[in-house]
Write a structure and sequence with these properties.
- The structure holds 2 protein chains of 2 kinds.
- By secondary structure, chain A is an alpha+beta fold.
- Chain A has one domain: Hypothetical protein apc22750. Chain B (Translation Initiation Factor IF3, 2-Layer Sandwich).
- In chain A, about 35% of the residues lie in helices and about 45% in strands.
- Chain A has a 4-stranded mixed sheet with strand order 1-4-5-2.
- The two termini of chain A are about 10 Å apart.
- The relative contact order of chain A is 0.33.
- Chain B has 3 helices and 3 strands.
- Chain B has a 3-stranded antiparallel sheet with strand order 1-3-2.
- In chain B, helix 1 crosses helix 2 and helix 1 runs parallel beside helix 3.
- The longest helix of chain B is centred in the first third of the chain and has 40 residues.
- Chain B starts with a helix and ends in a 6-residue tail after the last strand.
- In chain B, about 35% of the residues are buried.
- The chains are: A alpha+beta, B alpha+beta.
- Chains A and B meet through strand 1, helix 1, strand 3, helix 2 and strand 4 of A and helix 1, strand 1, helix 2, strand 2 and strand 3 of B.
Chain lengths: ~100, ~160
């Protein structure tokens, strides 16, 4: 499965369009990571636990989008976008969407 | 007895601010040093905000790549930013935090693409997302996500220059 955030797959020709596919996941923060983050809130710096958490969640949203694209018979998703929205205190939705296509 | 109470009530927060001032500026200086060094290493790796591949580039492979980072202000700078909230104006504490986060996210994007054999990135997008702990809960930070389409190239005009 080829993913791009351009409107085409560079160097390939799109032969069929399948419409929008998307994937999402909602994640809450982890209490253990919050303790470390609380410490980092005092001294400053990267919150590595959160970086990993969001990365992993975004990967899951992307995987769900890919699964949907496969189920309609696509072999690529173009113009992929990511969106993040805060749902409640300490919880966020990670969302990925794009256009499923078939390239030659 | 009362003096001791006053000392504790004022002393502890003041000591915390002082500690945060030193650690925060140390962390920031070290981060900027790392950013500058790594930026010189990826100087020849094109990271473009163009929506499509420039004319003349021969692409053999493409893939979506991301680079992310979550950073937090230190306690001292957050205190300053809160003071700034009262009078308005430029909040320099957050300006440098976002600058660091954005440059770090772009560097991670470039570095991970380069490691996987890609030689350019087009259609760069940057997104910023605020993480809140909810009320006074710990765990506030800012996430920056950088993403784009990484390319393996058979030919790129001007690459030898």
């Amino acid at each position: 499965m080829i993913l791009t955030n351009t409107e085409t797959v560079p160097g390939r020709t799109i032969v069929e369009f399948f419409g929008v596919v998307s994937g999402s996941t909602v994640r809450a923060k982890h209490i253990g990571k919050d303790i470390m983050a609380g410490f980092k809130n005092i001294v400053g710096g990267e919150l590595k636990g959160y970086t990993e958490l969001l990365q992993e969640a975004r990967a899951e949203a992307t995987d769900r989008m890919i699964a949907q694209a496969k189920s309609v018979g696509a072999n690529a998703v173009v113009n992929v976008r990511f969106a993040t929205s805060s749902i409640a205190a300490g919880a966020a939705e990670l969302f990925a969407y794009g256009t499923a296509v078939r390239v030659e | 007895m009362r003096e001791l109470e006053v000392l504790i009530q004022l002393g502890v927060p003041a000591a915390l601010l002082l500690l945060a001032y030193f650690t925060g500026s140390f962390v920031e200086r070290r981060h900027y040093a790392s950013i500058r060094l790594r930026e010189t290493r990826v100087r020849k790796f094109p990271l473009l905000a163009f929506r499509e591949v420039p004319a003349g580039w021969e692409v053999t492979e493409s893939a979506l790549m991301t680079g992310t980072v979550v950073v937090s202000l230190d306690h001292f700078k957050r205190f300053l930013a809160n003071l700034r909230n009262l009078v308005g104006g430029r909040v320099t504490a957050y300006e440098s935090l976002l600058d660091r986060a954005r440059r770090e996210a772009m560097l991670r994007l470039q570095e991970s693409a380069f490691e996987r054999g890609y030689r350019a990135i087009v259609n760069l997008r940057l997104e910023t997302y605020q993480i809140t702990g909810g009320g006074d809960a710990p765990g506030t930070g800012v996430e920056v996500l950088a993403y784009g389409t990484a390319l393996k190239l058979a030919r790129r005009p001007g690459a030898d220059a």
